[in-house]
Design goal:
The structure holds two protein chains of two kinds.
Chain A: H1 3-17, H2 28-33, H3 38-70, H4 73-99, H5 101-107, H6 110-113, H7 118-128, H8 144-172, H9 184-199
Chain B: H1 3-30, H2 37-45, H3 58-67, H4 80-91, E1 101-105, H5 126-131, H6 147-151, E2 157-159, E3 165-167, H7 177-181, E4 187-191, E5 196-198, H8 206-212, H9 222-226, E6 232-235, E7 238-241, H10 251-255, E8 261-266, E9 274-277
Antiparallel strand pairs in B: 1-4, 2-3, 5-8, 6-7, 8-9
Classes of the chains: A mainly alpha, B alpha+beta.
Chain lengths: 207, 306
């Protein structure tokens, strides 16, 4: 298996086959909370891709250079990751506030919101413990680049589904839906059907 | 028990905490953005509920806008006069009275004056009808479905037998939800003391405008010339009143050839708080005096049945 193909599979698998929202059902709160309108979900998606990638890179370093050598990773990874990711997001927020006000305006309100969003923490955790949330116990460790690629995959999968779903919900607003299903109930039903559809990706390329 | 694990955990977590805290402390110095201290003071005075009624994303943006001079000190609708007074004190200006707003619908082209081009049959919503252009010949007029009435939290929007939406100014709280939802942008939030209204937003001019609606604003600019205060201007084919300049003299309504400018006369006993009248015509004699609108304010079904 060539290197490039391996990275593609990693990316594709993280984004679509094991989609964080529809297959693993992590981060359902922003999934239903932000998907009201296409505009906010776009802003959210960009911020999530940005924050997740950064979060994983620092978590990977914290895990591989501090927690694992000290042997405390097994029970200390959640507080450490939250601490590291929250500080990093704060830091980056300060930097872009100073250096790029337009970027800050575009992402500003989402950055603190998703600091340690469950999706961000899940991506960080899975990038150091592959298969953790699927209870697969894969005895394999991602290298730094691999973990970044994996996280970008997760974030892209998140964004893809969030944007698709927001577009869908904007249409549902106008659809003749029975009164009792309006709003969140129909969104959950739609999400379930979406999820069924995404299960069809399992098995692609023999994954 | 392995005590080394305990101190390792404590040291690593404390180490992370101290290190990251230090980095953040240095960064907050290095990347400090000079913020006007008044922004924080104003933010302190605002309700901080981030309701968004001011049209800005949250109270912080509102505070920044106030300090930058882009927004009036009375920007916070949720806070009311108290907050406005406090913000005014911080900014060193008199807040003045918070002028309440009411919704005004810029269309009066009912069934009898504005013909239908086609029959719209579909989702009973203006936003949906707008996607296919609606059924009315006038592409700018009120679609007469129920989006604004549905979104109104106080049921202030009703519709008359002409199929045109009306605002009950007694009930209207000026929240602006209807203004946001109207797909044709016909609903404007106007000061509650405004009396003269252009009741049309047709971008068509002249014959083209009257061809699709008998009471359309033709963009003739007579009102512009009649206005002593330079408060009314024709742009995009229809007249718009600047309520900061308007003195409610009604001169424009008196010269309007299609009666699309009308004067709102408040009546205390009136169920809707008043009604539109057309003042005595000045120049073009022979225009019959007409009373537009009625006051029964029925709540009927919500669809134009043709």
């Amino acid at each position: 298996m060539s290197e490039a193909w391996r990275y593609f599979l990693l990316l594709f698998g993280a984004a679509v086959v094991a989609n964080i929202l529809l297959i693993r059902f992590i981060a359902l709160c922003p999934f239903f909370g932000v998907s009201n309108s296409l505009e906010t979900s776009l802003g959210m998606s960009i911020s999530v891709i940005f924050v997740m990638t950064m979060a994983t890179s620092v978590s990977w370093i914290a895990w591989n250079y501090v927690l694992e050598p000290l042997g405390v990773g097994e029970f200390l990874y959640i507080p450490t990751f939250i601490l590291v990711i929250a500080s990093l997001v704060q830091f980056v927020e300060m930097v872009i506030k100073k250096t790029s006000p337009p970027l800050y305006k575009a992402m500003g309100i989402y950055l603190p919101l998703i600091t340690t969003n469950c999706a961000v923490l899940a991506a960080a955790t899975e990038s150091v413990k592959p298969g953790f949330f699927t209870k697969l116990n894969i005895a394999y460790h991602y290298g730094f680049v691999e973990s970044i690629v994996y996280t970008i995959g997760v974030a892209v999968g998140f964004s893809l589904v969030l944007i698709l779903f927001a577009a869908m919900r904007e249409r549902l607003e106008l659809a003749p839906i029975p009164k009792f299903f309006r709003g969140v109930p129909i969104a959950f039903i739609t999400a379930a059907i979406f999820s069924l559809a995404f299960m069809g990706f399992a098995g692609m390329f023999g994954l | 028990m392995d005590w080394s694990l305990v101190w390792k955990a404590a040291v690593s977590l404390a180490g992370f905490g101290i290190l990251l805290g230090a980095i953040l402390a240095i960064a907050s110095r290095r990347f400090h953005v000079e913020v006007d201290p008044r922004v924080e003071a104003v933010l302190e005075a605002l309700p901080k509920s981030n309701c968004g009624a001011c049209g800005l994303p949250g109270c912080e943006a509102a505070a920044a806008a106030v300090v930058a001079g882009e927004a009036p000190v009375t920007i916070c609708r949720a806070g009311g006069p108290d907050v406005a007074a406090e913000v005014g004190r911080i900014m060193g200006v008199e807040a003045g009275p918070v002028i309440p707003l009411v919704a005004h619908i810029h269309c009066r082209g009912g069934k009898s004056v504005s013909p239908l081009r086609s029959f719209y049959q579909g989702v009973n919503s203006c936003r949906a009808a707008q996607l296919v252009g609606g059924g009315k010949a006038c592409p700018f007029g009120c679609l007469g479905l129920q989006d604004c009435a549905e979104v109104c939290p106080v049921n202030a929007i009703t519709f008359d037998e002409e199929g045109i939406r009306r605002v009950n100014v007694r009930k209207c709280t000026g929240c602006g939800l209807c203004s946001d939802i109207c797909p044709r942008g016909l609903i404007e939030m106007v000061p509650a003391d405004a009396r003269v209204f252009v009741r049309c937003k047709s971008r068509y001019t002249g014959k083209k405008a009257t061809g699709v609606c008998k009471v359309a604003c033709t963009g003739c600019r007579r009102c512009e010339k009649a206005c002593p205060e330079d408060a009314i201007h024709v742009s995009d084919g229809f007249a718009t009143i600047d309520y900061e300049k308007c003195t409610n003299c009604g001169e424009c309504a008196a010269v309007c050839p299609t009666d699309s400018i009308q004067v709102w006369v408040p009546h205390d006993e009136h169920p809707e708080g008043g009604e539109f009248v057309v003042p005595e015509k000045k120049k073009p004699a022979g225009k019959k005096r007409e009373r537009a609108g009625n006051g029964d304010g029925d709540q009927g079904g919500g669809e134009i049945e043709e």
